[in-house]
Amino acid sequence: MTVPVIPNRAVFRAQEVCDLAQVQPYVLRSWEAEFPDLGVAKTPASPRIYRRSDVELVLRLKHLLFVDGLTLAGARRQLGDTALALGDGSVSDADVAALIDDETRQHLRDVRRGLQWILGVLDGSGITPDDRVLVALPPVTRGASKNGALAASPGGAKRKAAVAKPTKKGARGRR
What is the 3-state secondary structure (H, E, C) of the chain? Predict the structure, then answer.
């Protein structure tokens, strides 16, 4: 079993780790469940990011499980608690930013702008003429006019209000 060459980068995506270790994604996810320190998740919605030391741990796990024939519990004992302390564990913002696409960056900017606006409103300095504030319009009443007066329709055009015609009681069925 040859040891793959790990590219000289600080962080890796899950698929890249799977390709390097030649394991399926579900195997990697099951190892994450057994070893919680494996991988770094920035937010619950973002994909997991793996440090170089995580990739080395995955390769070591694969060797222990597939070559040495150990179970996950045996591999955990073999690695010991000191081996799970994964180096300094620092991933720079630039490394994470390299993995984010432009659309995600725009969404993050929008969220940041919204949070800054909320902070400004809470601080008292956020309400300016440039702020976009939604204002509820009064409800449009239809048919409220009795004498055929003009009422505004929701589309803005004026139309004649519907007036109910009085019915004659007892007119039906008489000859």
Answer: CCCCCCCCCCEEEHHHHHHHHCCCHHHHHHHHHHCCCCCECCCCCCCCEEEHHHHHHHHHHHHHHHHCCCCHHHHHHHHHHHHHCCCCCCCCHHHHHHCCCHHHHHHHHHHHHHHHHHHHHHHCCCCCCCCCCCCCCCCCCCCCCCCCCEEECCCCCEEECCCCCCCCCCCCCCC
